Amino acid sequence: MALGRMGLLVILASLTIATPALAHDGTGLAGGFISGILHPLTGWDHLLAMVAVGLWGAILGRPLIIALPVIFPVMMVAGAFLAMVNIPLPPVEIGIALSVVILGAVIAFRYAAPVWLACTIVAIFAVFHGYAHGMELPSAADPAGYSTGFVLSTGLLHVVGIGIGLIDRHETGRKAVRALGALISIAGCVFLWRAIA
């Protein structure tokens, strides 16, 4: 039990020192398939949101265990398109931070959203994530390869979340999932504070 608490403290400490928008800092991309695969793993905000989408879908069950991980990358592509054609959105970093706060909270509180609402929440947040990366995409050396790798990596993070969600079927696992949701939401609050500051 002490080891579990120590692990949680380590995770919380690492989240407080991580940069909130490392995955989309606006500095341009090396490009290529491998770069696209690795990029979602370089920012805690994107990584936690992707895992949370899969985890929430697993908790909600069918049809959302499939629908949410499909909706997110599709709407992320739409968000990237909006960025590339210069259609403005509200502050993107705040939208991304809120995605982590809210997705963590719905997991922590086991919010059983109706299908339409869960899909809408995920779709809106996906647009913000896609927009942030779409602003960088034109600077990539190989935009098509990068995009393919990025979407694949995002999908794999959803699968990780679904895998974690499998432990939700047992009482002990359910408590662990709720605690993980709370940690994700707390991390989102840190990202939100940094985005506003």
TrEMBL record:
Output the InterPro entries linked to this UniProt entry.
HupE_UreJ
Entry keywords, A to Z = Membrane, Signal, Transmembrane, Transmembrane helix
Q: Name one Pfam family in it.
A: HupE_UreJ
Q: Does the keyword Transmembrane helix apply?
A: yes
Question: Which N-terminal residues, if any, form the signal peptide?
Answer: 1-23
Transmembrane residue ranges: 33-57, 64-85, 91-108, 115-132, 144-167, 179-196
Q: What is this protein called?
A: Protein hupE
User: Organism, per UniProt?
Assistant: Asticcacaulis biprosthecium C19
